[in-house]
Amino acid sequence: MTLTMDETKPQSTAGIPLVTVRHVSKRFANGTLAVRDVDLELGAGQFISLLGPSGCGKSTLLRMIAGLGAPTSGTISWPGEQGADQGTAGHGGRDLGFVFQDPTLMPWANALANVMLPLKLKGVPRAEAEARAAEMLALVGLKGFEKSYPRELSGGMKMRVSIARALVMRPKILLMDEPFAALDEITRHRLNDDLLELWWRERFTAVFVTHSVFESVYLSQRIVVMAARPGRVMADLSVEADYPRDELFRTSGEYAHLCRVASTKLKEAIGR
Ligand SMILES: Nc1ncnc2c1ncn2[C@@H]1O[C@H](COP(=O)(O)OP(=O)(O)OP(=O)(O)O)[C@@H](O)[C@H]1O
């Protein structure tokens, strides 16, 4: 297992990248330059973390990839899709799922109905939508909780429902904005494991925003380290540890070493 670094250019990926970010900057109306000149290629099927301190533009970048807000300059494109330039438009129904830090569930609807929402919006017939939502809930470990309301579920379970809802359309890419930040450590570890298993099985591209070095190393094949003021990419690290990763990996010397290297990079990025 090694951790390699290429700080000068984005990592090349096998085949056509799923998403290409070229010279993307974002300045908000109040003058804040949230993201400056970011270049990234997101390889199909990769697990990528965006790691950085608060305010380095991770969320802004993730939201732009999702089409939630356009870059001020530069382009975001989906090379595999015709006319897929996303520089100025919204995601236009693109094949993606988004998980926010807050599970954002409908409190008046049970878990099954929450997961069914995207299918309902797409006009999928009720019986089929129910079957697909139930299957997705089972995949995130919530078989038997279909009829439970959000108030009856723990924080971790609510996040599982949110992930099921994001994946129920079987998107090519799952964008996650610090989804486990509010959870206790044990729940967080369990969700990390289950997310990896899901990714391994379903093979979507995963982009995971975090400020935890430990979480980014545990999950990712690649860590994009960002710095703040203005938000920019400082390093692009490749984590070449085998999957499946489990408790044994989490307690290994190799994991500790990888965390040390990533942590040093992060400290350099924030100027310490
Ligand atoms: N809508 C907005 N209007 C003005 N400034 C904004 C807006 N959204 C974000 N910012 C600013 O842009 C910068 C980057 O914010 P962003 O939320 O992308 O960072 P982040 O790395 O995700 O931070 P955190 O880890 O705290 O969520 C910050 O300085 C933030 O205050």
Number of continuous helical runs:
8
State the CATH class of the largest domain.
Alpha Beta
Biggest sheet, in brief? Answer: 7 strands, mixed
Rg from C-alpha positions?
18 Å
Overall pLDDT = 90
Named once each, the bound ligands are: adenosine-5'-triphosphate
CATH architecture of the largest domain: 3-Layer(aba) Sandwich
Poorly predicted parts: 1-13, 84-91
Global structural class: alpha/beta
Question: What share of the residues does DSSP label as strand, in percent?
Answer: 15-25%
Structural key phrases:
2 domains, Rossmann fold, 7-stranded mixed sheet, 3-stranded antiparallel sheet, globular, 34% helix, alpha/beta, 272 residues
Task: Tell me what the structure shows.
The chain has a seven-stranded mixed beta sheet with strand order 1-10-9-4-8-7-6, sandwiched between helices. A three-stranded antiparallel beta sheet has the order 3-2-5, with helices on one face. 34% of the residues lie in helices and 24% in strands. With 272 residues, it is of the alpha/beta class. Helix 2 (111-121) packs parallel to helix 4 (155-167) and helix 6 (213-219) crosses helix 8. The model is unreliable at 1-13 and 84-91 (pLDDT under 50). The chain has two domains: 3-95 and 171-269, 3-Layer(aba) Sandwich (Rossmann fold), CATH 3.40.50.300; 105-170, no CATH class. The protein contains eight helices and ten strands. The longest helix is centred in the C-terminal third of the chain and has 18 residues, at 185-202. The chain is globular and about 50 Å long. The protein binds adenosine-5'-triphosphate. Adenosine-5'-triphosphate binds at residues 28, 30, 32, 34, 52, 54-60, 211, 231. Residues 19-253 form the ABC transporter domain. Belongs to the ABC transporter superfamily.
